[in-house]
Amino acid sequence: MGERGRPRKFDPEAALEQAIEVFWRNGYEGASMADLTAAMGINKPSMYATFGNKEELFRRAVARYAEQDMAYARVALEEPTAYGVIESFLRANADALTRPDRPAGCLSIQGGLAFGSDDGTVAAFLADSRRAGERALADRLVRALDEGDLPAGTDPVALARYVMTVSEGNAVHAAAGVDRAALHATVDLALRAVPASGVT
């Protein structure tokens, strides 16, 4: 029988990892189907059968990225103090943005910097994903405020937005070639704006 009748020989998980790399380097709009299938080692029919269309593949890639590459964000939320949460997140983020085994920057930022043919649905999806992370951080900071770990009057939502703005800005700079030490220097400055503990 021809190749079409044989069972799939490729590893879907490994193929998804390769798709992540392509989307990360080229963005959603810049990643062609030819680029994706070549990197994944499969043909278009196999790609469609396993992952659906390009947008569905991208959504799965982002989900895998959030689960694996951004696991540090969930770890940071477990720190006992608000300052510890923010420092852990921003330090780990700076390291993740400059990993030698990954493209520089952040998939969720790079993936949606340009869009066109999708009517903005991918950019909206990525924005929603980032807002979900910001809400999780804000919820943790609300708890810190309730526990007296942040000074009375601190706006936890604004503080979470500030932290995410720093991390997203560092992602853009990392993609432009800024090194890890420089990103950590930015984190040093950002941490000065974190309110001191309200606990005496």
UniProtKB/TrEMBL annotation:
Keywords: DNA-binding, Transcription, Transcription regulation. The keyword Transcription applies. The keyword Transit peptide does not apply. InterPro entries: Homeodomain-like_sf, HTH_TetR, Tet_transcr_reg_TetR-rel_C_sf, TetR_C. Residues 9-69 form the HTH tetR-type domain. It comes from the Bacteria. Residues 32-51 bind DNA. Coiled coil: none annotated. This is TetR/AcrR family transcriptional regulator. The lineage of its organism: Bacteria, Bacillati, Actinomycetota, Actinomycetes, Micromonosporales.
